[in-house]
Amino acid sequence: MKPNCPMQFDGIDHVVLNVTDSERALQFYTQVLGLTVERVIEDLHIYQLRCGRNIIDLRVLSQGKTLAQKEERGIDHLCLMMHGDVDVIVNYLKEHDVPIVFGPVELYGATGFGTSMYVLDPDGHTLELKADYAQYPIRTTGKEAMAGLTRLRAEPYSDGCPTSSPSGAVGCRRFRPTLKHRATLMPPAEAGS
To answer: What is the pTM of this model?
Structure first.
């Protein structure tokens, strides 16, 4: 936390995604992903869906309005935590014609390494579906494994305020896999492709 900053954060409460077709979006988020509609704000055309302890708001654009191109939307992807056998989930998504654009692969996030796959919703929003465990063995070297167990020295953020860690170290960040590492973290069946 920045010195003299009165705010402390617990996480993200909700996210709002603009959608163009309420029926199509609700079919995907409720019937395919299994989220539940918790509240509908009719005059604002917002459907609030329960996703664990968080909410995803689907805000339906007015008729005739279109979404900006993906690169201009201001968000690359939204990561949703999930539970379940990744192989079963991949087959389920394929059966429901949900495009998997990347993965499954072991990636790092707020809960550490886990198995992730990236899918597209009907409006082209990229969703990362992430299990908080590694479904597949992580392939690495001793040096890379040790780097993942310790904090690496990093420069302070551009605003001049150093980061801090629970251990009291200043200016440290956790090991993050590079694109080279992503190739080595693929499940065995995908590693050769």
So the answer is: 0.72
